[in-house]
Amino acid sequence: MVLALARLLGSRQWNRGFTLIELLIVILIVGILAAVATPLYLGYIKDAKTAEAKAVAGSLWTAVQSNAIGSCGNAVTVASAYPKAGLTAGGTTTPARWSVSAGGSVTVACATGAISPDQVVFTVNGTTSDVNFIQVRLAYAAASNPPSKLQCSTDSGTTFVDC
């Protein structure tokens, strides 16, 4: 059967492999895909790292509120909530990838539940080289709606946007 097919086609040999044009087209397609995918991938990486900082900020804010409600009417420092939030006494995560700089103290009014004073309650800063450009802070303003807002910066704290 194979011999009959070979006789039918004559002495013409089948090409084995790809032509230079075919290889160039494949390389061009792969290059275009890489050029489109790389910026998207880097954006996803930045978003994931920012989400990690927001998780630390969320757990710390929950712990701060819990402590403030527990000592109703008395000022509670942000640093006193570090153990509840899973931070070290110095305000760093384990491993030391994020650190917290606290803004001061928070007081909850027993009758109304209002939190005071209006301030940047704390800022979560990246400490390792892959996250040192990320900052997430929690700003509290009683007159705002909602009163507490997470603000993110991915340019080392130059500009903050609500996140």
Task: Please give a structural write-up.
The protein has a five-stranded antiparallel beta sheet with strand order 2-5-6-7-8, with helices on one face. A three-stranded antiparallel beta sheet has the order 1-3-4, covered by helices on one side. It has helices at 2-9, 20-70, and strands at 76-77, 98-102, 105-108, 115-116, 119-126, 135-140, 148-153, 161-162. The model has no long low-confidence stretch (mean pLDDT 89). It has one domain. The chain is built from two helices and eight strands; from the N terminus they run H-H-E-E-E-E-E-E-E-E. Strand 3 (105-108) and strand 4 (115-116) form a beta hairpin. The N and C termini lie far apart (70 Å). With 163 residues, the chain is α+β, with helices and mostly antiparallel strands.
Strand order of the largest sheet: 2-5-6-7-8
Note the total helix count: 2
What form results from the Cα inertia axes?
rod-shaped
Compute the number of strand runs: 8
Q: Distance between termini?
A: 70 Å
Structural class: alpha+beta
Give the helices and strands as they follow along the chain: HHEEEEEEEE
User: How many structural domains in the coordinates?
Assistant: 1
Estimate the mean pLDDT confidence. Answer: 89
Radius of gyration: 29 Å
Level of helix content? 25-40%
Strand content: 15-25%
